Automatic annotation (TrEMBL):
The gene is HSD11B2. One of its GO terms (molecular function) is 11-beta-hydroxysteroid dehydrogenase (NAD+) activity. Coiled coil: none annotated. This is 11-beta-hydroxysteroid dehydrogenase type 2. Pathway: Steroid metabolism. GO terms for biological process: glucocorticoid metabolic process. It comes from Pseudonaja textilis (Eastern brown snake). PROSITE patterns: ADH_SHORT. Belongs to the short-chain dehydrogenases/reductases (SDR) family. Pfam families: adh_short. The keyword Transmembrane does not apply.
Length: 320
């Protein structure tokens, strides 16, 4: 489910760079970053889920021969091992200048109680354990170059976005891991940056979320379906889809943050690209949590009252 991308600079003074995104460099931030870094003259090892995908073909057509595509799924240990061997074999003499983790998998819009445990585990495998394994595997090269680690996390890992339970908790683990690496790797001269993007369109189609919602409804135990009601899940997913329709299409601010984290003489520890994100973090850090919760419900998802908490008069029968 997740991919890796590696980037190597052509400039003799700068060792290679490595970028590891999900769902790969064939879409979203990963593809945009790979294209931009290739234009800057870096040798790019870009991971994709499928070498035959349209996004992979676009990268072949738009990028220079410096870009190499790797097929990798972050939930498959053999894929990760093969990618690490490939990159080490080609960068062992020069070291590796940078690693970019861009794992961002989510397949559930629901409360924690409604989210099956396997969904939590999948999010952790892709968004946390995959980047952890890749980072640890490439640290010997990064120590040699005194290089960079740039990781794309999410504001959902900093605050409790409604109905992003499995995704948010995995991103919280990832953010703390990178903060830990920031402290531990400083003596080696490795600089670590974490990016918290705002609301951007990264390729997920509306019908994909409808299918995932229907699958979740079909798998819910009867007691949970009775407590929350089918309309509860229908409504939060409708709000999420409506929210994503107004997300920003221009990914350049995120790509600029990735580039700055890799190439700036003084990269920041944290980047916050995105419309209005500063206001959200100001509210989160300096105002009561009740204000933060109201803000998130107003501008993201505002769940309706679960069926089990409604007055009897507002109950609608749950289909059997």
């Amino acid at each position: 489910k997740a991919q890796a991308t590696a980037l190597r600079a052509s400039c003799p003074a700068l060792p290679p760079l490595s970028l590891h995104p999900h769902p790969g460099c064939d879409s979203g931030f990963g593809k945009a970053a790979a294209q931009h870094l290739d234009r800057l003259g870096l040798t790019v090892y870009a991971s994709v889920l499928d070498l035959k995908s349209s996004g992979a073909e676009e990268l072949r057509q738009t990028c220079s021969p410096r870009l190499t595509l790797l097929e990798m799924d972050l939930t498959k240990a053999e894929d990760i091992r093969r990618a690490l061997q490939f990159i080490k074999a080609r960068t062992g003499r020069t070291g590796l200048w940078g690693l970019v983790n861009n794992a961002g998998f989510n397949d559930t819009i629901a409360n924690a109680e409604l989210t099956p445990l396997p969904h939590f585990r999948t999010c952790m495998e892709v968004n946390f354990f995959g980047p952890l394994e890749l980072t640890k595997g490439l640290l010997p090269l990064l120590r040699s170059s005194r290089g960079r680690i740039v990781t794309v996390s999410s504001p959902a890992g900093n605050m409790p976005y409604p109905c992003l339970a499995s995704y948010g908790t995995s991103k919280a683990a990832l953010s703390l891991l990178m903060d830990t690496f920031h402290c531990e790797l400083a003596p080696w001269g490795i600089r670590v940056s974490v990016i918290f993007p705002g609301y951007f369109k990264t390729g997920e189609a509306e019908n994909t979320w409808i299918v995932l919602k229907d699958q979740l409804l079909a798998a819910l135990p009867n007691d949970l379906l009775e407590a929350y009601g089918e309309e509860y899940l229908e409504e939060i997913n409708r709000q999420f889809v409506d929210f994503m329709k107004v997300a920003v299409e221009d990914l350049s601010s995120v790509v600029d943050s990735i580039t700055d984290g890799l190439l700036s003489p003084k990269p920041l520890l944290k980047y916050y690209p995105g419309r209005g994100l500063w206001l959200m973090y100001f509210i989160h850090h300096y105002l009561p949590h009740t204000v933060r919760d109201l803000f998130l419900k107003t501008f993201f998802i505002n769940p309706k009252l679960p069926q089990g908490l409604c007055p009897k008069a507002c109950h609608t029968p749950t289909p059997s």
